[in-house]
Design goal:
The chain is α+β, with helices and mostly antiparallel strands. 20% of the residues lie in helices and 35% in strands. It contains two helices and eight strands, in the order ββαββαββββ. Strands 1-5-6 form a three-stranded antiparallel beta sheet. A three-stranded antiparallel beta sheet has the order 2-4-3. β5 and β6 form a beta hairpin. The two termini are 48 Å apart. The relative contact order is 0.20.
Length: 172
């Protein structure tokens, strides 16, 4: 083997909604402040936790003020926020919405070897569970391919080409 091309993609779980409630956020209680902290550190920790809860509740209140039905569900240390799908469909005039949640990473590898004539030969796609590299073995990167944006990734938060409101945002 002379070359390995490893490609990593984000994997998403997609669920289509045309009615009911859809989960939009979760707040998790912070871990308790360690007992060995001084009194000021404990007070600061409690204030941060209280401020975080208030911001979460403000989001729910803001959504309600904009006409959405909101439900909060407590589950142990988690508080989940749900909004009404029917209001979303009516507001954005669409038949359904799709919720995509990051579910992990997909890693693919292509192996390249030299054939009998010394030409680079690409392998067929193979599943790779674990790629073990011996200690001290150097891996040389001769050419790194530029990152390409997948079409479905245009809808992910933070993407520089993110599509908002059904249209690609215009650059100034």
């Amino acid at each position: 083997m002379v070359k390995v091309k490893i490609t990593m993609y984000k994997s998403h779980q997609s669920v289509r909604y045309d009615s009911g409630m859809v989960h939009v956020a979760t707040r998790t209680l912070p871990l308790n402040s360690p007992d060995n902290q001084n009194e000021q550190a404990k007070k600061d920790f409690e204030q941060i936790a209280k401020d975080e809860l208030n911001r979460f509740l403000e989001v729910a209140t803001d959504l309600e003020s904009k006409g959405f039905s909101v439900e909060l569900e407590n589950e142990g240390i988690h508080t989940h926020l749900f909004i009404d799908v029917d209001t979303l469909l009516e507001k954005y005039k669409c038949p359904s919405i799709q919720r995509r949640v990051l579910s992990g990473r997909q890693i693919r590898a292509e192996f390249y070897t030299l054939d009998d004539q010394g030409l680079l030969q690409k392998s067929k796609r193979e599943s790779v569970g674990v790629l073990l590299i011996p200690n001290g073995m150097a891996i040389d990167v001769f050419e790194s391919e530029p990152r390409r944006t997948r079409n479905d990734n245009l809808f992910m938060d933070g993407n520089p080409n993110e599509i908002k409101g059904g249209r690609k945002s215009e650059e100034p």
